[in-house]
Model the fold of this input.
Amino acid sequence: MALRNILKEGDETLLRHCRPVTDFTPRLHDLLDDMAETMLSANGVGLAAPQVGVLRRAVVVLETNTPEGEEQVIELVNPEIVEADGEQTDPEGCLSVPGAFGMVTRPSHVKVRAQDRYGQWFEIEGVGLTARAFCHEIDHLDGHMFTELCDHIMSQEELDEYYGQQQEQEDAK
Done:
């Protein structure tokens, strides 16, 4: 496995539509392994192939609904959202736009149909941050960035205020 360079906003590759994966070879396995290592090294919760310069429909997402310390990386090849419901509005960021966050509304629950690294189809559901990450990364495959969905990039003060309010609500429970 190897760390890959994460492309930054402004790179035209991030705005391109990705082609489906048709070859489920060791080369794809290496890409998925490298993407997982790169995502985890950058403290991300998701990474799409175009973010590392590969215009193929492949993403990795960190399952966030697990006990502390039990990280599980979900690999999605040729993913598509087949069901979505609920709503969540929270700050969202991106490894390709370091340090920037904006308020984005996403479904609170999604079901995704995808292939695994061997080409086998499966369905998986995500809630909360995992649902958000599924949507965010699949958007990348179609050349879209989260910045298209938010009104403005939040200042550090706005971000601190938001998380301070969230903590106060949590403490009140």
